[in-house]
Design a protein that fits this description.
Blueprint: H1 20-25, E1 46-47, E2 57-60, H2 75-88, H3 110-121, H4 127-137, E3 138-144, E4 151-158, E5 160-164, E6 173-176, E7 183-186, E8 198-204, E9 207-210, H5 214-218, E10 228-232, H6 235-244, E11 246-251, E12 256-264, H7 272-278, H8 289-298, H9 303-307, E13 314-319, E14 341-343, E15 354-360, E16 372-381, E17 391-398, H10 400-408, E18 410-420
Parallel strand pairs: 4-17, 5-11, 14-16
Antiparallel strand pairs: 1-2, 2-3, 3-18, 4-18, 5-10, 6-10, 7-8, 8-9, 11-12, 12-13, 14-17, 15-16, 15-18
Helix pairs in contact: 2-3
């Protein structure tokens, strides 16, 4: 499961959660989170890093302060948290909860969570037991950003696509595996100040150069390599699978398999929704996955030109589906849970963290805000455009209905994170 702001700037992984609406107009939801910040020491009830960083700010609150806390059925969040706990329990006690996270918020290390995880693993899937456990073990923190007190929350999903193992006139658009000549250069090996940053490319005539862009790959520049994992009917389906970072394939032989994120060509993401708005094809306030799909279907002669405006290209790996009810793997290779898995900025929030999201359900075109979306979430994914302390991408599940929700989700909201109680004992 990645893998970003509503549709105008530039996952992926599922390992890179992707915000769908935002990615189509503003930025890509795919890719690695390469941000890096220095740890800061907290010293007051309302805590902030150095002034020049400006984010995040956190303030201790109570569970009574969480909007909708008593109304949520926490059993779904328990199942998601138990999956993350299985991963946390394998860590060395002194290991960070997530190696990409700074110390701007007191998340502690693995040993701070492991006793709680053992306790969580023994809880039966009941709302009452989960609520009692959470309230006894964790303290909620209101997280804000000086530049954006309320954040943006988008959605992503796993598309279901008809496909075949065999290329034909009907099935002619490939899901490609990662090419052997696609290389990732970790810049911190050359300059420690660039820790966590990388570039992708290939070697040609002894020079490291950018990798092939989408138009070149579509034209067959990689056809000499045996990379095709499967073939789809509709290029637009595959394009949106690139944005989402994964897909569930319904093969023509009756079997089902999954395409998961394996890599990307390193070219910058370009939001085609932005181009369609600039051309007057779609009004800015009506851009969604659904409206873009409709325009492409109505203008088939322009389809390839529009899709190839985005030079970014995603490569996949096949993952067998052992349990059809489990979602695609997130950044920690843990199956995502619909409406409970949240993609976050890993430089701020670690994978495995418990979070309370106070937002609204997706807003349909021309409609008013629906009922609140107030749920206990688990940070289980990330995305290159998921940046900031109050920013998240909700995984809605697999298939058309999940796509309908993800395609319209671009709502403001407030984020709270839950940390083990003892971590705040020495902070006033």
């Amino acid at each position: 499961m990645r893998k970003t702001l509503p549709f105008f700037s530039s996952p992926q992984s599922f390992g890179a959660g992707l915000c769908l609406v935002a990615s189509l107009v503003l930025a890509a939801c795919s890719g690695e989170d390469v941000s890096n910040q220095s740890p800061q020491t907290q010293s007051s009830k309302t805590h902030s890093p150095k002034a020049e960083q400006q984010t995040p700010i956190w303030e201790q609150v109570t569970f009574a302060d969480l909007p909708g806390w008593q109304s949520d059925d926490l059993s779904g969040a328990l199942q998601a948290f138990q999956k993350s706990c299985a991963h946390i329990l394998k860590k060395a006690p002194s290991a960070p909860l997530d190696g990409k996270t700074t110390e701007a918020i007191p998340y502690g290390v693995a040993q701070d969570w492991q006793p709680l995880c053992r306790q969580a693993q023994s809880i039966k899937s009941t709302n009452t037991a989960m609520r009692a456990f959470i309230e006894a073990s964790f303290t909620p923190l209101l997280v804000t950003d000086e530049k954006r007190p309320q954040g943006l929350f988008t959605g992503y999903y796993e598309p279901e696509i008809k496909a075949s193992r065999t290329r034909s006139t009907r099935y002619a658009t490939p899901f490609l595996a990662k090419p052997a000549d696609l290389l990732t250069l970790k810049l911190e090996q050359f300059d420690p100040s660039l820790k966590g940053k990388s570039i992708r490319g290939r070697v040609e005539a002894g020079r490291f150069i950018p990798y092939h862009e989408r138009a070149e790959i579509d034209a067959g520049v990689l056809d000499g390599q045996p990379l095709a994992l499967a073939w789809a009917q509709d290029p637009v389906d595959v394009f949106f699978a690139h944005i989402q970072g994964s897909a569930r394939l319904k093969l023509d032989d009756g079997s089902v398999t999954r395409m998961a994120f394996a890599g990307k060509n390193g070219r910058p993401y370009r939001a085609i929704g932005r181009d369609l708005v600039a051309r007057g094809a779609i009004p800015k306030d009506q851009v969604s996955m659904q409206s873009i799909r409709a325009w492409l279907a109505q203008n088939p002669a322009s389809r390839d030109e529009i899709l190839q405006l985005n030079p970014s290209y995603i490569f996949f790996r096949e993952v067998a589906i052992k349990n059809i009810d489990l979602g695609p793997p997130g950044a920690a290779n843990i199956p995502l849970t619909p409406n409970r898995s949240l993609a976050v900025d890993r430089s701020v929030h670690p994978l495995g963290a418990l979070m309370w999201l106070d937002s609204h359900e997706p807003q349909r075109a021309g409609g008013a805000k629906t009922k609140p979306f107030q749920h206990l979430m688990v940070a289980q994914d990330t995305g290159s455009a998921i940046k900031g302390a109050v920013r998240g991408d909700v995984f809605f599940g697999s298939g058309p209905q999940a796509g309908e929700s993800a395609g319209h989700m671009a709502m403001d909201g407030q984020l709270y994170t839950l940390v083990p109680k003892h971590l705040l004992s020495g902070i006033n």
